[in-house]
Amino acid sequence: MKLLAAKWDGATAFVLPRAEYAEADRAACGGLRLVPVETLSDAVNAWNALGTGRGKVPSC
Q1: Nearby residues of 36 by Cβ (< 8 Å), 6 or more positions away
Q2: Measuring CA to CA, which of 12, 13, 25, 55 is 20 to 30 A from 6?
Q3: In sequence order, what are the beta bridge partners of 14?
Q4: pTM of the entire predicted model
Q5: SS (H, E, C) the chain
C-alpha cells in the first residue's frame, strides 16, 4: 500500500529497509525506484544523492 500511495503521489523513488526489499520488489509499481538502506544515515545520503545527482544511490 505504501508503494502504491507513493506512486500515486508522484514519487519516483522509495527508500526502504534492505530487509524489506525482496517483498517490496515483488509488489513494486513500474517506474518507482526502490532504494534499500541499512541505516538512517544511509537513507539521508541516498536522498541527497537522488536530489543532487551526485553521490552513490544504493540499489539491489
Answers
A1: 16, 17, 18, 20, 21, 58, 59, 60
A2: 55
A3: 34
A4: 0.79
A5: CHHHHHHHCCCCEEEEEHHHHHHHHHHCCCCCEEEEECCHHHHHHHHHHHHHCCCCCCCC
Please, are residues 34 and 60 in contact by the beta-carbon 8 Å criterion?
yes
The string of pLDDT tens digits covering residues 31-45 is 788 999 999 999 999
Please tell me the distance from the alpha carbon of residue 56 to that of residue 52, in angstroms, as a whole number: 11
Backbone angles phi, psi at 15, to 5 degrees: -90, 135
Which residue's C-alpha cell is 538512517?
40
CA atoms 17, 24, 11, 31: torsion sign? positive
16 pairs with which residues across the strands?
A: 36
* C-alpha cell of residue 14: 522509495
CA-to-CA distance for 56 and 1, rounded, in angstroms?
27
